[in-house]
Amino acid sequence: MGRPDYPQDMREFRRKFSSDQACLEYLSQSRWPDGFVCPKCSGESAVLIASRYVYQCRVCRVQTSPTAGTVMHRSHLPIQEWFWAAYLMATHTPGISALQLQRQLGIGGYQNAWHMLHRLRKGMVNDTRTKLTGLVEVDETFVGGPVKGKKGRGVAAAEDKSLVVGAVEVLAYKDAVGRRRERAGRLRLTPISDASAESLGAFLSQSIEAGSRIRTDGWKGYSDTALEDYIHHVRVIGSPDRAHKRFPHIHRVFGNLKLWINGTHHGVEPKHLPGYLDEFVFRFNRRQTPMAAFQTLLGISSRKPPLKLGQLMSAESK
Ligand SMILES: [Zn+2]
């Protein structure tokens, strides 16, 4: 059998995980793709106690639940709700609010939905370990409420607005008739206090591999000092409304980010913004691998590569 398949759409998801039993089997298969291994003694033979769905090791007799060590462990909320919440969070573009989740689940109440999203967000692994490479588009934008007072990139943001800097890899490919096309690769987003050369330079060195090519507009913050480790491609934009043509990838990201924050969450307080940016980046960088995102959120992504299963069922029948 190997690793279980990932559902292609919501209908399939609901059918596949229509019972607690089905969810627990999926957990078991994901955690022990090549057969049960006791976390205590590494024994590979266990009896499934079906009434409570725990595996009891035949060697040390310790009982292990497939939910142990996952986001669902010791939760009083139904496992099916956790699965549904993680699925929506991993695949539903552009994300989901606690209120929407509560409505989707149809039960549970707002507090539970909020709690689940909060726990699932903690499962989002930090993406900043590997830096972006190749050709990278960089720009900044304001995120939050309506602009008040001063405008412009040199000044601090108005109270309820936060300045965010973004970088996205630009991957080139040839289309069917041999024309050069571009698509977005991986993304980084960070709140910054201002768009000075110092702030931008710090973001660049944290986020982008030295020697990469960086595409920016003519803003003075993208100074020679800020970009000394990089090859700088400046694209001057004539008027502000042309920015989305000159920097299509990062501007599409910014557009979706604002739609998500303003439309889905009805704005975000600046102190909560970093968490929301992390969530947006998590989903964006895993948009091609929703199964990995789903499993990461639930806390069941196995460190092992997928292997042949078969052991798990035989462990039950031994
Ligand atoms: Zn054991």
Structural class designation: alpha/beta
Pattern of helices and strands: HHEEEHHHEEEHEEHHHHH
Average pLDDT reading: 82
| Helix count, DSSP H or I runs of 4 or more residues | 11
Backbone CA Rg: 23 Å
Shape: elongated
Low-confidence runs (pLDDT<50, min 5 residues)?
Answer: 146-150, 154-158, 303-318
Q: What's the main sheet like?
A: 5 strands, mixed
- Number of extended strands: 8
Which descriptors would you attach to this protein?
single chain; 318 residues; alpha/beta; 3-stranded antiparallel β-sheet; 11 helices; 8 strands; binds zinc ion
Description:
The chain contains 11 helices and 8 strands. The protein has 318 residues and is an alpha/beta fold. The strands form 2 sheets. Strands 6-5-4-7-8 form a 5-stranded mixed β-sheet. The protein has a 3-stranded antiparallel β-sheet with strand order 1-2-3. A hairpin with a 5-residue loop joins strand 5 and strand 6 (180-191). Helix 3 packs across helix 5 (110-122) and helix 4 crosses helix 5. The longest helix has 17 residues, at 248-264. The protein is elongated, with a radius of gyration of 23 Å. Mean pLDDT is 82; it is low at 146-150, 154-158 and 303-318. Bound molecules: zinc ion. Zinc ion binds at residues 38, 40-41, 43, 57, 59-60, 62.
